[in-house]
């Protein structure tokens, strides 16, 4: 155990406190809040270290079951405005577990090949195999975010996508994938800060995209597009969570906690050996030193 005060910690489970049905509309959400968690940055860091070990153990259990033929998997969908910290979650939460058990995929503008298929085609191809935790850095929801905000396809087309997404996710869940959808919420002020830092530091120039400034000009349209997603594509089986992300330590802790809850929900046990343990013990004991 860490040194944090015994009263610090989650007063409400993350999966309850952060669910879009509890948080209220994204437009009124405070990106520097820590819903459900009582503690500061240093207690948060201690919690993350402790909970990271729990996550790593659960991930190993999932992986072991996958190796034994279990088709179940977990899919973490990350969305959020530019600079919200999606990459940081991949590094710092994904980094808590064995990389062999992860399948990470980022989605940019569709390639010419992808454009020749329906919008879910590339998503199908990137789904995690049994035993894996898949992380999507952006996802099929881009097809109702920038696509909606800029009418990259006619409204009559993107309108239909909410239902297509719901059906796709229902099928996915039925086939054994646990889906957790997290929208990292950053404030405009914090985004400005992070953009400016990207320019100040040559080691961050690679992350700077001049187009991000243009997208910022559509902030309210994005909030509306996000709200439409939460209103239309949140369900008990494929829930959406709002992750306040002005404080990176909290965003990481929160996503770690949601992953733990998802994995615990699978109720996994170590797979039974497909060999006779007693016979193998005798054989090993009989080996030369
Ligand atoms: P980044 O996450 O910084 O690598 O940027 C990826 C870019 O690809 C973002 O500007 C996304 O909005 C954009 N993008 C991802 N998927 C789509 C899509 N289906 N349609 C249009 N733009 C997309
Ligand atoms: Mg970017």
From TrEMBL:
Record keywords: Kinase, Transferase
Q: Which residues form the Polyphosphate kinase-2-related domain?
A: 49-264
**InterPro entries, sorted:** P-loop_NTPase, PPK2-rel_1, PPK2-related
Look up the domain of life of the source.
Bacteria
UniProt region (Disordered), positions on chain:
24-43
Spell out the molecular function terms from Gene Ontology. Answer: kinase activity
List the Pfam families hit by this protein, alphabetically.
PPK2
Query: What PANTHER family would the database entry show?
Result: POLYPHOSPHATE:AMP PHOSPHOTRANSFERASE, POLYPHOSPHATE:AMP PHOSPHOTRANSFERASE-RELATED
- Protein's name according to its UniProt entry: Polyphosphate kinase 2 family protein
Instruction: Please report the organism this UniProt entry assigns to the protein.
Output: Gordonia sesuvii
């Amino acid at each position: 155990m860490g040194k944090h005060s015994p009263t610090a910690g989650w007063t409400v489970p993350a999966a309850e406190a952060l669910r879009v049905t509890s948080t209220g509309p994204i437009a009124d959400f405070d990106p520097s809040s820590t819903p459900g968690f009582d503690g500061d940055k240093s207690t948060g860091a201690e919690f993350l270290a402790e909970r990271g070990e729990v996550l790593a153990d659960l991930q190993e259990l999932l992986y072991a079951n996958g190796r034994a033929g279990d088709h179940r998997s977990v899919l973490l969908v990350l969305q959020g405005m530019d600079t919200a910290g999606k990459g940081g979650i991949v590094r710092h939460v994904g980094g808590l577990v064995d990389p062999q058990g992860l399948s990470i995929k980022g989605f940019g503008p569709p390639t010419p090949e992808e454009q020749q298929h329906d919008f879910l085609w590339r998503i199908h191809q990137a789904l995690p195999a049994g035993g894996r935790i898949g992380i999507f850095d952006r996802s099929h929801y881009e097809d109702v975010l920038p696509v909606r905000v800029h009418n990259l396809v006619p409204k009559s087309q993107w309108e239909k996508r909410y239902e297509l997404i719901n059906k796709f996710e229902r099928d996915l869940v039925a086939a054994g994938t646990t889906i957790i959808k997290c929208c990292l919420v950053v404030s405009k002020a914090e985004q400005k800060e992070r953009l400016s830092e990207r320019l100040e530091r040559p080691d961050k120039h690679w992350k700077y995209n001049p187009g991000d400034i243009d997208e910022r000009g559509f902030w309210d349209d994005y909030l509306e597009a996000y709200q439409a997603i939460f209103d239309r594509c949140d369900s008990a089986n494929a829930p959406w969570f709002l992750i306040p992300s002005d404080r990176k330590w909290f965003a990481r802790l929160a996503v770690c906690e949601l992953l733990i809850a998802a994995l615990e929900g699978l109720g996994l046990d170590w797979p039974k050996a497909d060999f006779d343990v007693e016979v193998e013990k005798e054989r090993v004991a009989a080996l030369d030193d």
